[in-house]
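TASK: fixed-backbone design
INPUT:
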């Protein structure tokens, strides 16, 4: 029996094989997606299933049409194409970036689908186990490391010197902030307005990522607060992106 004008005969054993690999991709994608759904992540159960099944379907199609060479070409397109999908879940909020782990999980779900689509079901299952382990077993270790104080000796840190002044004095305060940091030999990446209301403004001077001496930054803040145009000054440190 022929299907349409494609010239390809309906192959029942091949169709069963396709159903098997798509079913495996569905189940393994659902396992990954379930963990994401439980944690209320942006890309959850349905998304992970669709990514895994879609990748498996494309790889299987390439194999059915042109063999292993077609599968290799399709896999290359899947790897690059999933990057655009992952970029859609990454959001930047100020200095913080959210969604990187979700994007990486999407990428891994595509790898699971590609393995399944190529008929390597055991390998697809192994990748699934690794993804789940990365998202669950490593979580306590990550939480422990994140709770540790930032050590400038071992962590590349981003230092920001904050200054609050009146709106009328913001230009002079900006110049003073730059001058004090230059005097202390700390290069400035940028000075931005962090908050603004009717009568008070907060400026933030972000230093070029480097190591800094807390006592020196404290001295800069003391010098800033000695000026009559400065209400208060302080500094903060965070990890770089």
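OUTPUT:
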């Amino acid at each position: 029996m022929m299907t349409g004008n494609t010239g390809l005969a309906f192959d029942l054993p091949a169709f069963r094989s396709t159903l098997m690999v798509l079913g495996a991709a569905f189940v393994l994608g659902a396992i990954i997606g379930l963990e994401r759904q439980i944690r209320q992540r942006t890309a959850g159960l349905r998304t992970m299933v669709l990514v895994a099944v879609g990748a498996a379907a494309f790889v299987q199609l390439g194999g059915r049409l042109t063999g292993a060479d077609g599968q290799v070409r399709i896999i290359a397109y899947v790897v690059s194409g999933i990057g655009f999908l992952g970029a859609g879940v990454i959001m930047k909020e100020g200095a913080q970036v959210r969604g990187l782990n979700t994007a990486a999980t999407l990428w891994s779900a595509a790898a699971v689908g590609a393995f399944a689509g190529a008929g390597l079901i055991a390998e697809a299952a192994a990748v699934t186990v690794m993804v789940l382990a990365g998202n669950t077993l490593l979580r306590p270790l990550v939480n422990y490391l994140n709770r540790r104080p930032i050590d400038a000796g071992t962590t590349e840190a981003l230092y920001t010197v904050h200054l609050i002044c009146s709106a009328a004095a913001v230009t002079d305060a900006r110049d003073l902030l730059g001058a004090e940091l230059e005097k202390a030999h700390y290069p400035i990446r940028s000075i931005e307005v962090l908050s603004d209301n009717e009568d008070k403004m907060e400026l933030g001077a972000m230093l070029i990522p480097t190591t800094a001496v807390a006592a020196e930054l404290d001295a800069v803040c003391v010098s800033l607060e000695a000026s009559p145009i400065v209400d208060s000054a302080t500094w903060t440190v965070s990890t770089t992106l």
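COMMENT: Strands lie at 91-93, 96-98, 157-166, 188-196, 200-207, 230-239.
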